[in-house]
Amino acid sequence: MDNVVEIALLSAWNYFRGMAVACCSIARRADPEAFLRFHILQSQFTEEGMRWLEDRIKSFHVHSEVVFHDVSEVDQLDLPAYSASKMTYARLLLPKLLPEAEAVVYSDVDTLWFADVCELWKLRHEVPLVGCSREQSAGTLAMERAWFESNGLPFDERRYFCAGVAVYNLREIRQRDAFAPVLEFGRTHRGYNCADQSMMYGAIGNEVTLLPDKWQTFPRNGIKTKRGEPIVLHYAGEAPWKASRITKMLTDTQLLWFDMCAEVFGETKWRSLRKFYKVWEIVAYRAVFLAIFRIPPLHALFRVWLRRTGRGPFEESLR
Fold first, then answer.
1. What residue ranges do the domains of the chain occupy?
2. Is this structure's pTM higher than 0.90?
3. How many whole angstroms separate alpha carbon 319 and alpha carbon 303?
4. What distance in Å separates the CA atoms of residue 228 and residue 226, rounded to the nearest whole number?
5. Exposed, middle or buried, 294 (CB in 10 Å: 0-12/13-18/19+)?
6. Nearest Cα to 184, choosing from 167, 159, 157, 204?
7. Would you list the DSSP string of 31-84?
8. Which of 161, 221, 226, 254 has the fewest CB neighbours in a 10 Å radius?
9. 10 Å Cβ neighbour count for 212?
10. What CATH number matches the domain at 4-215, 1.10.3210.10, 3.90.79.10, 3.90.550.10, 3.40.980.10?
11. From first to last of its 319 residues, what are the pLDDT tens digits of the chain?
């Protein structure tokens, strides 16, 4: 089928809600005439959960199918755990898991799509190997620079990327066995910070095509596009289901995620929030955000604190 859009996400069971929201937001915004094939790289999903997810995705985009791939074998890789798991490395298995696919769009589960995945799919012809948007976190860039330079490895922050949303040219990756040096980098270097993202940059970073920023916008850096313009929000460290240890806020864009979560699961937004937060946390974390972003002097002081502590910008836009 010529108009099939191949899409991949990965998640362990404890991120099931994130997976469902990301998938359904992709489905909702996609061209209704396209056919979406979701590849869910999963570990420990229940049969009931898989069938429910398939039904919900199809309710948002009727021309779609869902294929589940058990990637528990990723635990056997000789690579360090990342956030107490090795699941992130499963995306390096995509060339093997999707042997018939020539390309695939990959998305992390802590994303919310307001853009048409079919438009990103069209860019696959401009991606010789891997395509990602640039890294937008000042903290991550500083951390990665320090590690690479301390290990005598080159680092150019203008070329460093975030692999949370990506386009993989699977045919070329298979032909060149291009992920072999990525895995080798992971086995021979220890202490890197961002799992397979660091590995890809260290091994094939000079061959990664940089995609437009709209395909991966970090809310904490501010939404620079006009209201209603297509973007993909990647919460990247500010996941809606866990308030940041740094900021302790419930931000406007996090509440956008809870709007979608409530719709996907057929519940009120309050009930969605209560899945992750106590009542006092909802009230307190939202009050902190409103105080900082509605009272200009507090906002100015907050920005000074972020800058002086090296945490980079936090310009969360208002709804």
1. 4-215, 243-255+269-308
2. yes
3. 20
4. 6
5. exposed
6. 204
7. -TTSEEEEEEEEES--HHHHHHHHHHHHHH-SSEEEEEEE-GGGGGSSS--BTT
8. 226
9. 11
10. 3.90.550.10
11. 457 999 999 999 999 999 999 999 999 999 999 999 999 999 999 999 999 999 999 999 999 999 999 999 899 999 999 988 999 999 999 999 999 999 999 999 999 999 999 999 999 999 999 999 999 888 899 999 999 999 999 999 999 999 999 999 999 999 999 999 999 999 999 899 999 999 999 999 999 999 998 999 998 777 766 666 889 999 987 889 987 666 688 988 999 999 999 999 999 999 999 999 999 999 999 998 899 888 888 878 877 877 777 666 666 654 4
Which residue is it, tokens 């409103």?
290
